[in-house]
């Protein structure tokens, strides 16, 4: 039965065979050593060529890091993320140390997240956040606006990372969104002699801010 239909539930098998649910569970789990798994959702299914490109790019990064341990310290990475205008305090955030004699904590009403979202653009390096700004309501990020963001980023790097800016050795890592790869933006970065690191398509896990900076920033 399981071989014919791998999506059968234990209850459906028990009803079909007219045996107890516990018996079916023991047979499936203990005797056949089977367990149910589910499909993993991914943003995009990569082709063989894209997988090869991703592997080669990641290998190049590893090789450079092996030759130059300070390589990661020269990378400035950035991206955009949607943020709620306000988030209610979570249970973890409201936790307090107390003793057995402490009074009960006051109750609070359950709040819902704001329906209003704003777009946050943030850039950071190994030392922390360098520049961030919120996109004005009713506007979108295009080549022209992103060029303005990069101009302000360069000014910010010059002010808060003077040694990195003066060395001219820093690199920019951003994904392949259309505003990032527009001709206007590429020409601007070329005139400013900014090295842009290669970012394989559909590889958000290689953009560190997606998993480190943005999730942490949304807790505050």
Name some characteristics of this structure:
Transposase_1; 5 strands; 2 domains; alpha/beta; RNaseH_sf; 14% strand; Nucleotidyltransferase, domain 5; 220 residues; nucleic acid binding; Mariner Mos1 transposase
Protein described:
A hairpin with a 2-residue loop joins strand 2 (117-125) and strand 3 (128-134). The chain is α/β, with parallel strands linked by helices and 220 residues long. The chain starts with 9 loop residues before the first helix and ends with a helix. It folds into two domains: 1-36; 50-89 and 112-217, Nucleotidyltransferase, domain 5 (2-Layer Sandwich), CATH 3.30.420. Helix content is 37%, strand content 14%. It contains eight helices and five strands.
Please tell me the overall pLDDT.
81
The structure class reads alpha/beta
CATH class of the largest domain: Alpha Beta
* Through-space gap between termini: 51 Å
| SSE string | HHHEEEHHEHHEH
Q: Which strand order does the major sheet show?
A: 3-2-1-4-5
Enter the CATH topology name of the largest domain.
Nucleotidyltransferase, domain 5
Q: Helicity range of the residues?
A: 25-40%
Radius of gyration equals: 25 Å
Strands, total number: 5
The CATH architecture classification of the largest domain is 2-Layer Sandwich
């Amino acid at each position: 039965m399981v071989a014919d239909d791998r999506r059968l539930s234990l209850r459906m098998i028990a009803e079909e065979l007219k045996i107890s649910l516990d018996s079916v569970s023991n047979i499936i789990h203990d005797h056949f050593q089977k367990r149910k798994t589910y499909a993993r959702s991914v943003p995009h299914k990569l082709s063989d060529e894209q997988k090869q490109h991703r592997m080669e790019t990641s290998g190049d990064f590893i090789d450079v890091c092996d030759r130059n341990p300070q390589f990661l310290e020269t990378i400035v990475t950035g991206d955009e993320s949607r943020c709620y205008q306000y988030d209610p305090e979570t249970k973890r955030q409201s936790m307090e140390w107390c003793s057995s004699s402490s009074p009960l904590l006051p109750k609070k009403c359950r709040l819902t997240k704001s329906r209003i979202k704003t777009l946050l653009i943030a850039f950071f390096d190994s030392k922390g956040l360098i520049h961030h700004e919120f996109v004005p309501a009713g506007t979108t990020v295009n080549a022209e606006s992103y060029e303005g963001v990069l101009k302000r980023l360069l000014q910010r790097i010059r002010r808060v990372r003077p040694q990195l800016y003066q060395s001219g050795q820093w690199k920019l890592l951003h994904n392949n969104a259309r505003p990032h790869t527009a001709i206007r933006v590429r020409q601007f970065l070329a005139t400013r002699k900014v090295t842009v690191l290669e970012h394989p398509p559909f590889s958000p896990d290689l953009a560190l801010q997606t998993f480190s900076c943005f999730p942490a920033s949304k807790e505050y």
